[in-house]
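Internal tracking record. Fields below are filled automatically when a chain is submitted to the structure queue. Please do not edit lines marked as system-generated. If the sequence contains nonstandard residues, flag them in the REMARKS field before resubmitting.
Queue: standard
Priority: normal
Entity type: single polypeptide chain
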Amino acid sequence: MSWWYCLTHSTVEQGVGCRSGDRLGPYDSEADAASALQKARERTAEQDARDRADRGDA
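SYSTEM-GENERATED OUTPUT FOLLOWS
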């Protein structure tokens, strides 16, 4: 069964939980779901850096 990170409650959920618009996932493990926000922050920072480089503001 898949794991999710609930943005509303800041908790990890398995299976049915909060509505899909309030969750990140699915993830294969509880640990992966628990680190969802950190992964999202890292990916956002990486994409922001690529965007700045593409625009020439790096």
